[in-house]
Amino acid sequence: MRPRDNDWAQAKRLCRLSAEDVRMAKALGLNPRKLIKNIPGPKQRWKAPVRDWVRELYRKRHGGPAGEPTAVASRDAAGPQVEELEEDAIDGGDWPLNEPSWDEEVLEEETEEQDRQLLRRQKDFRTAADYASAAFARLPFVERVVLFGSVAQRLGREVPRFRRFRRARVALWHECRDVDLAVWVSDTSQLESLRKTLGRAVNALFAETEIGVAHHQVDVFVMEPGTDRYLGRLCHFATCPKGKPECRVPRCGASPFLRQHDDFVFDPQALDPARSVVLFERPGDSGVAASDRSRGDIPF
Fold first, then answer.
1. C-alpha–C-alpha distance, residues 166 and 212, integer Å
2. pLDDT in tens, 104-163
3. 218: part of which helix (H) or strand (E)?
4. At what angle do helices 104-136 and 50-62 cross, to 10 degrees?
5. How far apart are CA 168 and CA 116, in angstroms?
């Protein structure tokens, strides 16, 4: 048996593929080793099984195998996995050189689906911002929380990083990479409490809504009340200092869990009211959640 055949045999066994699944994967030009790497882990509930993703992609591109209905993974399960595999699962050695990657009809369908995923990603990140803001509001040293960046604005269209769409020069909605929150704190010695509160908020988000947002995807910019001066970013490490290379940046950790970045300058224009949304502000001794009245500022 050739090494390539061994790879496919292993992929068939580990991914629980049928002979027909393997045939479809080969027709799509997929790499067996990459398929194995994309087997969903115990905590990756959002990922569809590899066999379902292969069948769905084949159905979109070829209309489904003759004489056999194609299993279709749900949109929520297949979405992020499509994005991950599009980048690195294609094996150029198996793709026929005289066959186009897609036709116009399939490309339009895939573009619409990718657009829906990107808009849903922005909406999920906005929900994560609301969860974090509501949790921060319970901390007496937090005075204000503002959402800014792409999650706070109407998305524009651009040619994305995904190889298939980039090659065809097809514009999609902007991809939101993380949640940017500016948080005004009156006591920087309490940042460890702020970090733990953020972690609990992200965990509650998943438990209550099944929206998966990693802790490091919520970027907290620490601001000084009164002056609106940027102080640094909330560190996601469990200890400070952690002993990582990034901890060696000058002034990093001068206040525990207040991270600094080399050559980074915060742009105050990012907090312009036209480009940001106030989620929480504490007038006097009582806090006011602003997320409900400002939600309409972001079109979903």
1. 27
2. 555 777 888 889 999 999 999 999 999 999 999 999 999 999 999 999 999 999 988 877
3. strand 218-224
4. 140
5. 19
